[in-house]
Amino acid sequence: MELNGRIIAVLPAQTGQGRNGEWKKQDYVLEYNTDSQYPKRVCFNLWGDKIDQFNIREGQNLTISFDIDCREFQGRWYNDIRAWKVVEQQAQASGMPDIPPFAGQQVPPPFTAQDVPSEGGNAADDLPF
Fold first, then answer.
1. Is the pLDDT of residue 71 over 60?
2. What's the alpha-carbon Rg for the chain, to the nearest Å?
3. Cβ-contact 64, 83 below 8 angstroms
4. Residue 6 has pLDDT above 90, yes or no
5. What is the model's pTM?
6. CA 62 – CA 5 distance, rounded (Å)
7. Which CATH code, of 2.40.50.140, 2.40.160.60, 3.10.450.590, 3.10.20.740, is assigned to 2-88?
8. Mean pLDDT in the chain?
9. What pairs with residue 77 in β-bridges?
10. Which residues are 4's β-sheet partners?
11. Rounded to whole angstroms, how far apart are CA atoms 7 and 45?
């Protein structure tokens, strides 16, 4: 799965000792769907070397690729959202995304001052109301 959003919190790293040796985990909170009246948030984590590899900081706009898994511990179930790829989004100069035209579609020329009719106008072109 994949989400685009902004990092609003970088939580402290956690370390521990397991049967396979020492482990390191860090949680992050991503806010997405920010155009909505009620933006959504998701807490995801990175493990081991990926923490240093992606070097996530608060305020970054990112695209997160992740897997969702569920595990049981003492009769309770917990969701785990583990990111495996993180890509920083490039800021757009204008607020509009660059969307290429469909194949075969002609793009109209940009609007210019010559496209505006003159103030005098032609009486035959005037509307009666």
1. yes
2. 26
3. yes
4. yes
5. 0.66
6. 6
7. 2.40.50.140
8. 84
9. 72
10. 63
11. 12
Return the domain boundaries, the chain. Answer: 2-88
Q: Which two tokens stand for residue 51?
A: 């923490």
Q: What are phi and psi of 59, to 5 degrees?
A: 95, -15
The residue-averaged pLDDT of 45-71 equals 94
Tokens found for residue 116: 């505006």
Distance CA 14, CA 23 (A): 8
Task: Give yes or no for a contact between 29 and 3, defined as CB atoms under 8 angstroms apart.
Answer: no
Q: Identify how many contiguous H helices and E strands the chain contains and give both numbers.
A: 1, 6
Q: CA 99 to CA 109: how far, in whole Å?
A: 16
DSSP string, 81-120: EEEEEEEEPPPPSSSS---PPPTTPPPPPPP-GGGSPPSS
